[in-house]
Design a protein that fits this description.
hypothetical protein PF0899 fold; alpha+beta; 347 residues; 16 strands; elongated
Length: 347
C-alpha cells in the first residue's frame, strides 16, 4: 500500500525490515567510522539510512504516471491473488428465447448465459535500484537525501512495461492486450471518404469524422443487437490534437466539441500516444496505421489484471551496495465482453 506524505523531508519512521538488513550488513559500522561523518554509532547510521529508504520508497509510490494511458483509462483489478500462476475467466453471450405462453404453461423456454472459458497466464515483472557506500557517504557529508530519481526510474520502468502489456500484450509470454489481434475484439474498416480517397481523419471534414464514429457505434450495435453502447473513444495523440484545435468555420465549434455533442452514447474522447502510427506499442504500426479504440469504460466489460501492483521488497545488502528489489505481477487484459469494444485502424 502506498504511503502518503505531506512533507518533502524524509520521514522519521522506517521499515523495521530495512533497518534490520542495513544493521546486519556491516555497512553502517564502516560509515560511522568514517572521519568527518556525523554518526554517534553504527546504530545511528542504520536508523538514518533506514529512514532515507522509507522516504525514497514512499516518494516512488506517490509518483504519478500521466504518460501511461492504459493505467489511467482502463479499469484496473487486483482481485486475483498474487500467488496465482494463472487466472481463468469467461467471455459471456446471452442465449435462449422467450415466447407467449398460456395459463398453467409448463414448457417455458430457457434463457441462459453461455460462457467460454479462457485461461490467462500471470507473469512477474521486476527490476531494482540501489545505493553504494560512497553515495551514502556523499549524501551524509553534503546533508542531502539520497537520489530519489533511482527509485522513480525503477517505478517508471515497471509501469512502462505494464502499460505496454495492457495495450499490446506479450505474445512470447501468453499475455493479451486490448489491441492484440487474437483477443476477439472486432475491427472496423473506416470508409475512404477523405481527400484523395483516404481514411485518415486529418483529410476528413467534421461531418465525415462524425459519420465514422457513428458508423463504429452502429457496427457494435449490429453485433450485439443494440445491447452494447460504448462510451469512450481513445485516439492517437496527434489525431486528438487535430480535432481538438481544428475550428469549424463560422460556428465557434471545434471538431471535438461538434462530435461529442452529436455522437450518441459517446461521453468522452481521450488521447493516447500509444495509438499513433509510429508507436512501438501499436501493433498496427507495421502497416503505418494509427488506431482508434472504442470501448465501454466498465470493469464488467474488461479489466487490466494486476495481482501484484508495484511493490518494493526490503533492502538487500550486496557487497558495498544496498539494493532494493522491485516487483509487479500482471495477467494483461481480461476481456469478458469482447463485442463491447471496437478497433478501427487508419484514423
Amino acid at each position: 500500500m502506498a504511503k502518503k506524505y505531506n512533507s518533502m523531508r524524509p520521514s522519521r519512521s522506517y521499515d523495521p525490515q530495512d533497518y534490520a538488513a542495513i544493521a546486519s550488513s556491516g555497512i553502517p559500522a564502516a560509515l560511522a567510522g568514517t572521519r568527518g561523518l556525523r554518526f554517534d554509532s553504527a546504530e545511528d547510521a542504520s536508523v538514518f539510512f533506514a529512514r532515507e529508504l522509507d522516504y525514497i520508497k514512499s516518494r516512488s509510490y506517490d509518483k504519478l504516471y500521466p504518460e501511461f494511458t492504459a493505467l489511467k483509462l482502463f479499469p484496473i483489478s487486483n482481485e486475483v491473488n498474487a500467488g496465482a500462476e494463472t487466472v481463468t475467466y469467461y467471455s459471456y453471450d446471452k442465449v435462449g428465447m422467450a415466447k407467449i405462453i398460456s395459463n398453467y404453461s409448463t414448457d417455458l423456454p430457457r434463457a441462459d448465459v453461455k460462457g467460454t472459458p479462457t485461461t490467462a497466464q500471470i507473469k512477474s515483472i521486476g527490476d531494482s535500484y540501489g545505493y553504494s557506500v560512497q553515495e551514502m557517504r556523499a549524501s551524509r557529508m553534503a546533508g542531502k537525501s539520497l537520489d530519489v530519481r533511482k527509485a522513480e526510474s525503477a517505478r517508471y520502468q515497471i509501469d512502462y512495461l505494464l502499460n505496454k502489456i495492457a495495450w499490446a500484450g506479450d505474445s512470447d509470454n501468453g499475455l493479451v492486450g486490448v489491441l492484440t489481434t487474437t483477443n476477439n475484439i472486432p475491427t472496423y474498416s473506416l470508409p475512404n471518404t477523405g481527400t484523395g480517397s483516404t481514411t485518415t481523419w486529418s483529410t476528413k471534414t467534421a461531418a465525415q469524422i462524425l459519420a465514422d464514429i457513428n458508423g463504429m457505434q452502429k457496427f457494435v450495435a449490429a453485433n450485439t443487437k443494440n445491447v452494447e453502447r460504448p462510451d469512450t473513444l481513445v485516439l492517437p495523440a496527434d489525431v486528438y490534437l487535430d480535432i481538438a484545435t481544428r475550428q469549424i468555420e463560422n460556428t465557434g465549434y471545434t471538431v471535438l466539441k461538434f462530435v461529442l455533442e452529436n455522437a450518441p452514447y459517446l461521453k468522452t474522447i481521450e488521447p493516447a500516444a500509444e495509438l499513433q502510427a509510429d508507436s512501438e506499442i501499436n501493433p498496427y504500426s507495421t502497416s503505418s496505421k494509427a488506431v482508434a479504440f472504442l470501448f465501454t469504460r466498465s470493469a464488467d466489460k474488461f479489466t487490466i489484471e494486476h495481482p501484484l501492483p508495484f511493490y518494493q521488497h526490503p533492502v538487500q545488502p550486496k557487497g558495498l551496495e544496498l539494493e532494493v528489489p522491485c516487483e509487479a505481477r500482471t495477467a494483461g487484459a481480461i476481456i469478458y465482453y469482447p463485442l463491447s469494444a471496437l478497433i478501427a485502424a487508419g484514423v
